[in-house]
Amino acid sequence: MMSYRSWIRYCQIRCTTFFGVLSMEPTPSLDSLKDAVSADMADEYRAHSPPSSFTPRLHCVAVYELKQNNYMLPEYKVMEGEDFSQFKDEAANLYEEMINLMKKATLGDELAARYLLIHLVSRVTKFEPKDTPIGKVVLNLGWIPSNSGYTRFLSKFIEHFVTKLFYFPMTLKNMNELKFAPRKNYQTMRLETGMLQMPENLYFIVDETQLSPGQLKEEGVVNLRALNHLVKTNHVEYDFQFHRIPYMHTPVTLVLSEGKSMLPCDVAVRLRPQDPMPEDLDQYLSSCLAEVSKRMDALRNYLTAVSFHSFQPSAEVYEFVQADFVSTRQQSGPDAFTVDDLNMHISILKCMINLLGITPNQEHWKEIRALEKERKDRIR
Q: pTM (2 decimals)?
């Protein structure tokens, strides 16, 4: 890509709309440009400038970066201020509708439903020094009955509420044969894409229940390491043969497993269905969605707006949080409430207050603390 303004930067994972003129005309041959291109740069020129009959050119006159890609929201923009107020006014009702839907998706498990909804609207908001992602809530929904078909059902269910989703069955074959991280091909002088080169805020489901006994080959070990690194740090290391360069990626990752996941997830929830597993999950999915068919667009818009809405707790709330953090560590020891625990509590709190469209107070913090205690007690 050529930019006529040096300050314009394009990211390989960012969703962007381009307006321009498509050119399919042949480009001048290398011989006609020999004065402009030195002989030692010939191979690289051929790689980067193939004929337009092979790689068409789009001469852009306008470029717009998409913060979110829900076309039902005005101008594909992040909802702030007055634009967000339309959702804030009925947030409580929309939240209850989504909780009821999530309870159906988790077969009556309210705790899992609440965490699934919180996770659904979580986003990486920024990267702190040392490239630590802030805001992510990687959820591991574990202890799922094997060979039940539940993971595919849940994937199809979530697909109705997000704008882009990728389901990855973590089979031994996929782990050993797929290419996860992008690699530079020095013969073609091109960067070959990998599975983990994902667009911003893609909803990424990793189905660990598909993994069967067997041995990971060398490529499988490399892929598992890359997947681990993405889940933990939100970075993918691009392979340039002689060195690796980490690039930031921001998928919203859900890991489904039969026990606790092997991946370093932020939050693990043991699924405890209160309702029996339906015999026909496709029919059950249709019945769940049919109940809210008239409200589906409103619920999708609500989730998108909440996901990208930025709201910070007040200084008073942070003071209370800090006091609670210090008090807990003094009474029960440093391991009872670590810094990582504190950051995750705050991320969950922000998701919760965005979902409810409210100003947080001490009671909301206590609710998050109780929610986390119940979750941890369940997996012990």
A: 0.86
